[in-house]
Fold:
Amino acid sequence: MGVFDLSRKSLAIVLSAQLLLATQAATVAQAQMLGTDVAIDRYAALADRGLLLDELQRAEVRDQIIDLGIDPAEAEARLAALSDAELATILTQMENDSAGADIVGTLFTVFVILLVTDLLCFTRVFSFTRCVR
Structure:
């Protein structure tokens, strides 16, 4: 019975050591309170990064990147390396610099230019104007 007692003791020691190591690894994790605004900012940054990666996957964008001599994989890697503030800056620029976004302002500018040229007798576009001469 000496061999069985030795194997039981060694099994008990191995299982105790494994249990001790398992509980030590579990206590390494630390929890902290997470505010709602912090959680929203984290998920918003992830969504912004996903939006830009989706834009890079579009065929016309990918073709233009290749035409400029940039490897698409390198562009994706650089995009993944951007900070959250840099991503927000890029998205703000994309929203503000969209082509044709200020169509009302453009039409108003063209109207004013044509009105002034009509008043100075350079053109005759509007029938309600008279030359200043």
